[in-house]
Every structure is written in C-alpha cells, then in structure tokens.
Amino acid sequence: MRTRNEHKEQLVEEKALELLVTHGFDGFSMQKLAKAANVSPATLYIYYKDKEDLITQLGMIHGTKMVDVTLEGFDPHMSFEEGLRLQWRNRARYWLENPMEAKFFDLLSHTPYHKVIAMKMNDRFREVMTVFGRNAVEKNELVRVPFEVYWSIAFAPLYNLIRFHFEGQSKGGKPFTWSDEIMEQTLSLVIKALKP
Amino acid sequence: MRTRNEHKEQLVEEKALELLVTHGFDGFSMQKLAKAANVSPATLYIYYKDKEDLITQLGMIHGTKMVDVTLEGFDPHMSFEEGLRLQWRNRARYWLENPMEAKFFDLLSHTPYHKVIAMKMNDRFREVMTVFGRNAVEKNELVRVPFEVYWSIAFAPLYNLIRFHFEGQSKGGKPFTWSDEIMEQTLSLVIKALKP
DNA sequence: TTTATAAATGAATGTTTGTTTATTTATGGA
DNA sequence: TCCATAAATAAACAAACATTCATTTATAAA
Q1: B6 occurs within a structural domain
Q2: Do A186 and A132 belong to one domain?
Q3: CB spacing of B149 vs A24 below 8 angstroms
Q4: Same domain for B159 and B75?
Q5: In terms of domains, do B6 and B29 share one?
Q6: Does the pLDDT value for residue B171 go beyond 60?
Q7: A97 plus A161 within the same structural domain
Q8: How many domains, in total, are found in chain A?
Q9: A123 in the same domain as A80
Q10: Is A173 a domain residue?
Q11: Which residue is nearest to the C1' sugar atom of C27, using CA?
Q12: Domain residues for A31?
C-alpha cells in the first residue's frame, strides 16, 4: 500500500496556521488551504474529518506543546517566586520564538473552538498549578485568594504584554517592543501583588 | 419621501450583535442577519456600505459607549486609587449589565477589524489616562513604569476576571461567578502592585 | 512480479456567500 | 391631492464555500 507523505502533511499544518493567523478564522477556507499547501482539497479530508476537526487538532497539538514548554524545568515544590519566574520566562521565550503559534492560540481562545480544546488540554497545567499554589500558600509565599483571582493577577498581564508586543502597541506614536527589562519590571510588580 | 424605520434599524443592530456573539465572526453572514431581523438582505445595504462597514460601525458605537461609561464621574486629577477604583467599577457594572456588548468587544479585539476601531476610539481614553498616570506619578501614588506595563497590570486582570465570569471558568468543577468581593480582592492586589 | 490497499487527486456536488438590480411602497413637502 | 424621493423588497448574480466521488498512483507485503 501507498505510504503517507509526511512532508506534505506537515506543510498543510504549517500553512493552516499561517492562513488562520494572517486572515483570521473568517477568511480561512479549505480550498485556500489546499491551494496554499499545493494539495487537493480532497486530501485534507484524508488527514482531517472536516474543517472543525482540522482546527481542533491544530489547537490540541500547539496547546499541549505550549504547556510542555511552560513547565520545562518546573517543579511544584519550587519557591513561589522562582516557579512563577520560570513560567513567565518559558512562555515568553516560546511565544517570541514562535509568533505564529502565539497568535494562533490567542485567536483560538476567542472562538467557539476554545472550549473543546481548553477542557482537554488545560487539565494538566491546572492540576500542577493547583498543587503549586497550595504549597506556596502553606509556605506563606502567596496570598490566599480564589484561583481565578490568582490567575488574573499572575498571568493576564503577561498575555497582555505579549499582545502589545505583537501589535506594536504605542503611546502617542512610539511603537512598543518586548524586552527582558520590560518583562522583569512587570513580573516584579506581579510578585509584589501576590506576596502576603 | 419615505422615512426610515428606526425600529427596524435598531433591531438589525441588536440581532447582529447577538448572532456575532453566539456564532462567532465565522458563522456570521448577511443573509442570516437579514433573516434574524426579518429584513431583506438588500435593506442591510441601505444601512451599511458592506459587511465590513456593518461590523466597523457596530464596533465604533459600542466602543465609544464603553469609553463613556468607563469615564463616568472620572476626573484625571482624582487620587490614583480613587480613579482606578471608579474605572473598575464602571467597567464591571457596564459589562455585567450588557453581556452581549462585553462579549462582542472581546471577540472584536481578536479580529483584523480591531485595529481600525481601536485607532479611532481609544484615542480619547488613552489621552485621559496619560494625564491621569502622569499626575499620579508626580504625586508619588503610582510607580513610574512604561505605559504598557502599567496597562497590563492595571486592566488586564479585570478583563480576565470578566472572561472567567462569562465562561463560568471553574477549578475542579466549581463554576466561577463574579461578585463584588472578588473584584475588590483583585483590585486591592492590583493597587498594591502599582504603589511606589 | 503481482496484488491488495491506502494515499492522493481533479472534477464535480449542492449550498451559502456578499452584493446588485429592477421594482414596489410609503411619506414629507408642493 | 399628487409628486418627488428615499426606504424597502424579492429575486437574482457570480463567486466561494465545505464536502464527496470516481479514478489514478504509489508502495508494503505476498
């Protein structure tokens, strides 16, 4: 029997991400993807059940990859400050090195697909973070607040900073770009907020 | 000459928001909107130049309304804590009372339309906030940090909390809902972070 | 070398898309 | 009352859409 062309499959994956990010979910279609990846539309339906399946699979792949990267070198028994620093650094590095994935994920999180993927993929991260948070509170390194409050303070500013970076957000004309100093400055404010 | 049916026009606006929020930009079409608002597709092209114009206008309307509400009772010469508190309260109230608008805006901010609208409508808010921030720094009520860092700490957590609320985000099953205590708790951490 | 089988395709399916055109309908001002 | 004019429409348009079908192509195992 004939074997699957792995190179072709990977190209489809790449181009799908590219098209989704540059033209939005709105302007994305199977035919455009097929053309961009030099593949027959019918081939896409060998790889994926349908359009929804394509996007869901893409989300899962990059979602788990992102969680893996975020938790690289992480141990829930680290000190709170050390652990949070490591996660910020890991995420920032990954996103800056993989802007397509970063933007795709940001996009995806604001579509109906989000729920399906978040459910499956956040579980691991959520679990680790719950242990980490509980330990930190017990060691008196972290204020005791509901999970959602903690999350909103600990990570929302990082996401926002990255969005600013990719949008080149500016204050009265001066464009904004990421720097380690900016991250460090923001992170230290966050840590200050979360100390008991 | 015949006069425009204002009621019909407003219904179109309402239904457009509803469809966009429930089915996403993806699943939105002029024909669906026409059907939902009991109007001929051609009528939409009397109200709006094209689909892009429809969405842009919708964004502008709700964008300026949101800025107005946020700045209700605000004065850039308020103390920093008082001013930030007021803005958080204003935004939270508006979003909880107008979930459709809130979700629409969240959605919109992750599409190519975003840039067009943000440019025009954020100007006023940005200007007021710049004065407010400068004053607060001079009075030694606010740390001196780049605008983007300030923004990421001061508002990103609020946005995140609202998203959690609308998604019913949960930790191990318990669903999350907004409460004034939760907001107060988060806001006080934010203020702690931003104090010099 | 042959054969069975999955990969890959080009062309077509019927549907939905955004938008326009020709026509009818309502109404403020003459 | 009647007329000019804009509102509103039903029906249509080509283009783009997701998906399928009949067929060809490549290859692992026999």
Answers
A1: yes
A2: yes
A3: no
A4: yes
A5: yes
A6: no
A7: yes
A8: 2
A9: yes
A10: yes
A11: B2
A12: 1-47
Q: How far apart are CA A147 and CA B140, in angstroms?
A: 32
Report the C-alpha gap between B183 and B190 in whole angstroms. 10
Residue with token string 């100093």 = A181
pLDDT (mean) for B177-189: 97
What average pLDDT does the segment A138-161 reach? Answer: 96
Q: How far is A71 from chain B (nearest CA, A)?
A: 19
pLDDT at A167: 86
Q: How far is the CA of A18 from the C1' of C4 (A)?
A: 38
From chain A, the residues in CB contact with B157 under 8 A are 152-153, 156-157
**Which CATH number do you get for residue A100?**
1.10.357
Over residues B41-73, the pLDDT tens digits come to 999 999 999 999 999 999 999 998 999 999 999
List pLDDT tens digits, range A136-147.
999 999 999 999
Taking alpha carbons only, the member of A87, A88, A81, A89 closest to residue A195 is A81
In this structure, the answer to whether residues B116 and B23 fall within a common structural domain is no
For residues B46, B50, B56, B57, the Cα torsion angle rounded to the nearest 10 degrees is 0
Q: What angle do CA A181, A62, A190 make, to 5 degrees?
A: 30
CATH code (residue B8): 1.10.10.60
Q: Is residue B54 part of a domain?
A: no
**pLDDT band per the 50, 70, 90 thresholds, residue B194:** very high
Half-sphere CA count of A87, side-chain side, radius 13 A: 23
For residue A174, what pLDDT band results from cuts at 50, 70 and 90? confident
B24 touches strand C (CB under 7 A): no
